[in-house]
């Protein structure tokens, strides 16, 4: 008697209408933008929160760390739900949790209440990216998957610009007590996206077919496991999962080690007016968006590796800028402000994230894909959560020089580049394949 095997389907022949594909990419873009907005608005509120609740800068930074740690738990939980209950269901649940947590955070009364509520928010944030990104990659044309993924990740520019605009507006237009609270209340908008997803976004047809085969007993026993967290480290996936985890941890440590403190560095250390910091953030967001799209095209044309390698080199230039221009204060011209160009190099480096969802989705088989993609991404965020704690400590060791403290990200940049060269190339691989990709295929 022959062993039953799975019937694979191609994303190009899976029967999505144009409207369904539009709903998928719109939901994924908006979901990721709202996710990142909720994280990025905190740096603009840190000063107000510190004064309002009468806590230290380190305590405020620890709130961001706890949010990111919560996202690791959420990544594992909602990733598992995505593999067991479906991508769409997991996405709706995770949006509901993080919207509720963000609204509740606005009513915090001290450091610990804010920390606990932001931790709950982080749990919700943890599942959004993985559920949406996996669904997208299972539905999209594999020849244009890199560019489509870049559009989703490129919505980070919307998040960054919105966070800077709302953060500065709320803290300057309202009282010290209410400004940051009103800003956090805006994090409840994912509730509206939940309704849209419920009404218009389809479930992944690849997952639906896999689930039917699983229920019918047509799936090999190894693919039926309910412990998908263990399965992502089983057999040939073990080594590649370790590389993926180190890769994403290095990225996130560098990202959060800079993005959380850049507004503070420019305002407090380099005498940059708040409205100039806002303008710089908006300009950088536009540059970042163009970089995401450029790297997405590069992903599809030359391979996934190049879409991470080129931005990683831009981060190297950013680290040099932090070291060289740590004391060059704002002199009245954005173009003549060295830290502006350092920030531009930073946002170009951020576009490496545009390849992550597609690359991870192509590496992992369908039965563990949502779990693996969420866990890798959110474990990276978990390590990144230590950066807001480590940077102030390093800065204190350098006599209070924040730019020097931010230089602790330099080793992470080197590690990120090394792991980029170690991961297997997956361009044009069908995202519904169930067979794991052997790690020895890496070059």
UniProtKB/TrEMBL annotation:
Record's protein name: MFS transporter, SHS family, lactate transporter
Coarse class of the protein's main subcellular location: membrane
GO molecular function terms attached to this record: carboxylic acid transmembrane transporter activity
SUPFAM superfamilies: MFS general substrate transporter
Membrane topology: Multi-pass membrane protein
Pfam hit, one: MFS_1
PANTHER family on file: CARBOXYLIC ACID TRANSPORTER PROTEIN HOMOLOG
Organism: Bradyrhizobium canariense
UniProt keywords, alphabetically: Membrane, Transmembrane, Transmembrane helix
Record localization: Membrane
């Amino acid at each position: 008697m022959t062993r039953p095997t799975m019937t694979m389907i191609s994303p190009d022949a899976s029967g999505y209408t144009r409207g369904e594909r539009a709903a998928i990419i719109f939901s994924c873009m908006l979901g990721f933008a709202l996710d990142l907005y909720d994280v990025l608005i905190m740096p603009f509120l840190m000063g107000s929160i510190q004064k309002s609740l009468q806590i230290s800068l380190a305590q405020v930074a620890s709130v961001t760390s706890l949010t990111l740690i919560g996202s690791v738990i959420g990544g594992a939980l909602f990733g598992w739900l995505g593999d067991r209950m479906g991508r769409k269901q997991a996405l709706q649940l995770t949006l509901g949790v993080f919207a509720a947590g963000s609204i509740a955070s606005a009513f915090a009364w001290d450091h610990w209440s804010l920390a606990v509520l932001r931790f709950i928010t982080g749990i919700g944030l943890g599942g959004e990216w993985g559920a949406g990104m996996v669904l997208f990659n299972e539905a999209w044309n594999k020849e244009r998957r890199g560019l489509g993924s870049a559009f989703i990740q490129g919505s980070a520019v919307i998040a960054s610009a919105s966070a800077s605009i709302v953060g500065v507006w709320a803290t300057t237009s309202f009282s010290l007590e209410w400004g940051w609270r009103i800003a956090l209340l805006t994090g409840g908008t994912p509730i509206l996206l939940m309704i849209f997803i419920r009404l218009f976004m389809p479930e992944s047809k690849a997952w639906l077919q896999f689930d039917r085969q699983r229920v019918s007993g047509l799936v090999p026993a190894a693919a039926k496991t309910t412990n998908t967290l263990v399965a992502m480290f089983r057999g040939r996936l073990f080594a590649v999962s370790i590389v993926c985890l180190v890769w994403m941890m290095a990225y996130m440590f560098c990202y959060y080690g800079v993005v959380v403190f850049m507004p503070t560095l420019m305002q407090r250390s380099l005498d940059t007016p708040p409205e100039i910091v806002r303008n710089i953030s908006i300009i950088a967001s536009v540059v970042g968006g163009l970089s995401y799209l450029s790297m997405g095209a590069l992903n599809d044309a030359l391979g996934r590796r190049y879409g991470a390698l080129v931005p990683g080199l831009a981060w190297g230039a950013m680290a040099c800028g932090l070291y060289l221009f740590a004391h060059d204060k704002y002199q009245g011209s954005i173009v003549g402000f060295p830290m502006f160009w350092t920030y531009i190099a930073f946002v170009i480096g951020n576009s490496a994230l545009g390849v992550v969802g597609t690359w991870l989705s192509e590496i992992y088989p369908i039965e563990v894909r949502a779990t693996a993609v969420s866990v890798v991404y959110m474990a990276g965020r978990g390590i990144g959560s230590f950066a807001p704690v480590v940077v102030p400590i390093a800065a204190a060791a350098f006599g209070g020089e924040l730019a020097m403290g931010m230089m602790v990200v330099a080793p992470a940049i080197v590690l990120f580049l090394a792991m980029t060269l170690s991961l297997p190339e997956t361009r044009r691989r069908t995202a519904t394949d169930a067979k794991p990709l052997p790690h020895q295929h890496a070059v």
